[in-house]
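Incident log, structure service

09:12 report received: a user says their structure output differs between two submissions of the same chain.
09:20 pulled the input from the user's history:
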Amino acid sequence: MKTHDNAHHDGCLVPSKGHCDKRLSPKPLLRVWPAAESPFRGYEALPTDGYAQTSGNTAIVIDNGASTLRAGWASDKSPRVNFPATVARYRDRKINKTVSYVGYNAFADATTRGQIRNAFEPGSSIIGNWDVMEGLLDYTFVSLGLSGQDGGVERPIVMTEPVANLAYSRNSG
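09:34 re-ran on a clean worker, output below:
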């Protein structure tokens, strides 16, 4: 005695006329993958006391890593500021101004996350977007306590660059 079992027809649950009609088969269950949380740490006050604690000839050290920017004073043992090299800019229609979020603040909400731009070329420390780099340097100087009201920085600056940096990336700025 033969029994007819629908589950043995190559995974087809509704066979018709000797072949499987896939349109009538139920769709497989969807898998939902949890999204990783963004690295937003909350709004943090800028540590602006460094300028007052240094002498007039203390250099500012800026290290451009592949994904983060670290900066501090040459007299410090560790960097004072460390943040991702990202900037999010968008036009806020309510206040009718362009708003910029730098570093971890760029991950604040969906509007800013959709506008994130990276300063470096993917997988390297070579600056590919100089507009973003300008925003990162402005934020860095403000974070170190430099007001920049006169448009200049009256301290020496030491800035790192990648090993074997190409000449075109130096001449782009």
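09:41 both user submissions now match this output. Likely a transient worker issue. Closing.
09:42 reviewer note: The beta strands are 15-16, 19-20, 60-64, 68-73, 81-84, 86-92, 97-102, 116-118, 157-159. Helices lie at 50-53, 110-113, 130-143, 167-170.
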